[in-house]
Each structure stands twice: as C-alpha cells, then as structure tokens.
Amino acid sequence: MRNFFQKIMLFMQGRYGMDALNGCLLILAAVIWTVNIFIFPRIPHLILMLVQLGLTALVIVRALSRNIVMRSKENRTFMRVYEPVKNWVTLTFKRIRDRRDYRYRRCPMCKAQLRVRNVKGKHRVRCPKCGSEFDTKI
C-alpha cells in the first residue's frame, strides 16, 4: 500500500493540485448533479449532464496541469471575486446571529464594520482599525 501512495506522490510532483477555484467547481458540479436527479425531460437532463461532466473534466485538467503559473493566475482572478462575496455572506450571518445583543455600525473614516452593544442611547465608539472616535445612536 505504501508503494502505491509513493507512486501517486511521484506522479503528482510538479502538478498544480487543488485550490479554491477547483473546490468551487467541484461543488458546482455536485449541485448540478443533485438538481439533475429531479429533472425528467430528456434534453434538459442531457444538457445538465454535459455541463456537469465538463466541470468535472475541467477540475481534473486543472489539478493535473503542469502550468502552475497559469493555474495560480486563474485562482487569483477567481479569489478577487470570491472573497468579497464570502465576506458579505459571513457578515450577514454574523448580523443575523448577533441581532439581539449587538448592532453593526460602519466607521466614517475607514469604512470598517464595528460591532456595538445593543444598549439604547448615544455611544462613543473607537475604531480598532484606524483609531478614530465617533458617536453613534442606538
């Protein structure tokens, strides 16, 4: 068994492997596969199956590619779009989770999101990012 894993390690040397873009493409292929289970008309079913197979093939080609510079460039471009979306979703879930105890305010100087205790009245808030102080009302 150890010999098998050594052969795989030797095969993968110098190849790109997995990254965030490949992970998202695999998740998208799995979602399409799940949706495709419930589609009964033949033509849409075949179209979705081809899209799913194309995405899976793209993941395999990217993972086995030796052009590491190009794959890294593709991943960096994807991350420029993915990170703001991920941060927005994370902040939205935090706001929903903390809605009873905290309110979120934006710093007027650096536009950072600040979490303030949900106590009625005026509050003097200091931004930990830029150090500016401002008043907010809850």
Could you explain the architecture of this structure?
- This protein has 138 residues and is of the alpha+beta class.
- The protein folds into 2 domains: 83 residues, no CATH class; 38 residues, no CATH class.
- It contains 4 helices and 4 strands; from the N terminus they run H-H-H-H-E-E-E-E.
- The strands form 2 sheets. The chain has a two-stranded antiparallel sheet with strand order 1-2. Strands 3-4 form a two-stranded antiparallel sheet.
- Helix 2 packs antiparallel against helix 3.
- The chain is elongated, with a radius of gyration of 23 Å.
- The protein starts with a helix and ends with a strand.
- The mean pLDDT is 92.
Features:
138 residues, alpha+beta, 2 domains, two-stranded antiparallel ribbon
How many angstroms does the end-to-end distance come to?
A: 63 Å
Domains, number: 2
Find the structural class using helix and strand composition. Answer: alpha+beta
Global shape = elongated
Give the count of helical stretches.
4
Residue fraction in strands = 5-15%
Question: Helix share of residues?
Answer: 55-70%
- Could you tell me the mean pLDDT? 92
